[in-house]
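[Meeting: bench + compute handoff]

Bench side (C.D.) handed over the final construct sequence. Compute side (W.E.) agreed to return the predicted structure before the next meeting so the bench team could plan truncations. Sequence as handed over:
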Amino acid sequence: MMRLSGLSSRLTEMTDQMNQMEENITALATKVNRFIGTGQDRISNRAIRRITSKVNQLQDKVNTLTQLLTENECNSNPCKNGGTCADTYNGFICNCPSNWEGPTCDSDINECARYAGTSLGCQNGATCINTLGGYSCNCPANWFGIHCTQQHDDCSAASHQELCGHGTCIDEKRALPGQPKYRCICDVGWQAGNGGPACTVDIDECNGPVRRCSVNPPVVCINLPGSFHCGPCPAGYTGTGHTCADINECEMNNGGCSIQPYVQCINTIGSRTCGPCPSGYMGDGVRCTFIGVCNVNRGGCHQLATCVENTAVVGTYRECRCPSGYIGNGEGPNGCIETGGMNCASNPCRHGICQSTGSTFRCICTDTGYTGALCDQEEINPCDSAPCQNEGVCSRTPGGFTCYCTNGYEGPTCAHRISSCGGEFTQDNGTLQFPETGFTYDHMMSCEWVISVGESKVVNLTFDYFDLEGGHNCEYDFLQINDGPSAARMILSRFCGENLHGRSIVSNHNQVYLWFKSDKTVAHTGFKLNWTAQNPECGGVLNISEYGSFNSPGYPGLYPNDRTCSWLVRVPIGKRIQFHFATLQLEEHSNCSYDYVKVHDGATDTDPIIGTYCNTVTPPPLTTSGHSALVNFHSDSSGQHSGFHITYSSQSNIQGCGGVLTTPTGKINSPNYPDVYETNLNCEWLIRIHPDNRLKLTFQEFMLEHHRNCSFDYVEIYSGNSDRAPLLGRYCGQNTPPELLSNTNQLFIRFRSDNSVNHNGFKAEYKTICGGLYTELTGILTSPYYPESYPTFAQCLYEVRLEPGYLINVTFHYMEIELHLDCRYDYLEVRDGDSETSPLVGRLCGYRAPEKIISTYNNLWMRFETDGSVQNRGFYAEYNAIEIGCGGVHTEPRGFVSSPRHPDRYPHSVTCSWYLKAPPGYIIRLTFSTFNLEPDSECQFDYVLVQDMDRTAIGK
């Protein structure tokens, strides 16, 4: 339009100019005629004619021009298809509508080409069809509208209930035009049926593969539309029916067992039993009738002894008195021994007791150091010859002597130097030599060492000398070094031969595992190495509360070749970590075999990998499930890039998933309990109380996914402040774990779930207990606040755990505990082992210190409990270790046992018993590296008997 407006103005201007020109010509003609008429000018006729002709020609042109300017060419309607005509000099211009073009608007515009890629074109993959004067869009199946910009929502055609029944409608992309498409997410308890998506079929939870109600004891499952219901727990149990816990009938009114006299109530699954009536009573344990101690089996006295009731005798409440002419304590079949008669009248036994035997007598030597028929011959003391070497201590024994060797020596006379085959070292520097100087290592040996330095350090190993049997692939004798605490970690190298003098090896972590193995042929002098802790070239431990960052070595320059770095990132327990990759420039490879960054969802490289990167594409943020992560960077020998820069921050975890607890008592449970827990959880709790106390953890409910090795969903409990502390147990399935007791004032608990099956989870409570764990060879055991009065309602656990090869001797110097016939109120319970299920030594109370107690193995378990009334001073006891040389209880994750005096010959007439105990969920593997016993087809003489927990023989 602007163009037409300008053209009209130009035509008007030209018309004005022509009019002015015509006026000028007329004026000129007038002047010419005037000149001719007057004859004033001497102009020839020829010139006049020439001028007149030119004027006339000019007049004709002006007239023609005027006609063309005044003629309107738009009167013939030359513009087609709605075009607007604008008159011009000797022509016209058509202003065409948007869908036509050309001089007269008779050419169709291709809108498909013109509008392609713009908002006026067909959208979302639609096909454009050009038409005369317009265009149309052929939309894909899932779109509609003029330009295909509106999407079908098939779930809006009706209500969710009409479309999906017991489910939620989720719209999906249509595959074919005109055919609606959607899917239904069924509510819990419903499923699709009849070939359609609607959730109209009830799921029979009671007949599924997962038992919804209690299996042990069995509880009936009742199916309901969209749900199910568990019947009540049977008698003797309590619970929801989903789970049923045994009722401890003994907690109420002693389970119906006799209270006076007190009879122990023993809880059983679904019921209870009553123990026997105490001495002096008869009955079934529910009712006990007093008949006197001595009226029951003579009170346990010898058949010749007289039983006399005496309540001052703690434990038995009776005395057994031998008749005249007999000596002894009167108890049992050998309680009374005849001492006299005419045969013994002369007191022939000088250092012993005379026992009449018919017409003669025999002497029982009672004084140490005397022997012979009359106990009058002084024995030669075998220790007088100082047979024990290397400062060993000689102890006289019946018929011989025993040497107690100092550290580093063994053998019957302490003559053999011990080679330290295996061990753990926690110093930042030290020396490891195997075997000792001047010796060669033995055949068929397998030794393991673990060296641990500060968490933020790495280990530098330097060999002083190295002398092992050589081999092409080190298949005979070798030393293998792993980058971590076990053989499961990455192998740094395996060495043999004699070519390592002065060589250094640096780990990537703060621990290394060394494994020495020899075959049955050639032996050499072994090796000697020094280790020191040093700062890593890259990596480290990053403990932060809010945020931080780290980058590849050399960043923003090129990272070096052949470099391995590890960063351990930790935020407070109960938080998660979110990583952001600000820059990522690594060598690209299809499976990240060259240069890479790996992120582990946990503190070790055995934890799940949640991200592996080896390209130049910046990944999205990455979030861990727990409070720690291990980031490993590795570069190979070729290719370099600028690497990476990573920032990280702490994020809130799922509500109820982990935290730090410091109250004396408390409860923890899986998130969402008692409803099912979510998948992919990693919840961590740290319980920390006063340093003088310990913790007891009790699970009330436990329902997790079952797996033989608890590899899917599980709960781990560590006795300490992290997963580097000793593992108390790893549990899964539906069996409630046992009560767990910490060794320190802290417990670390981790709950993990995988990405599939989930259950109701667990509920547990913890409380503070007094007592302690004692591992020294000597120590003192006292009641709380001794020598002041002990508190009411106390529960203290004392555990003495010594190394195998020792027994425990406990001497009580003082005891003042509320007295009761059966020690029912306040008492000290002593058990010969490492738990409350170990054999009972006795339940102690009263005001007389008991006799010495000597354990059978290297563990002793004691529990001190008080009620809410009488308070006394309690007890004071000392314990010391008795070395026996063999046998014992082993609870460590790995170790070794050997025959007495190994590798020397074992002595005659010895019996050694070892008890190997692993945490629940684990099995034990035995590997014999040396075995040389007296041969016999039936192993009747010398033998090793291996039995399972139920005493079933595994091998002999």
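W.E. noted at the follow-up: The chain has a mean pLDDT of 82. C.D. will use this when planning the next construct.
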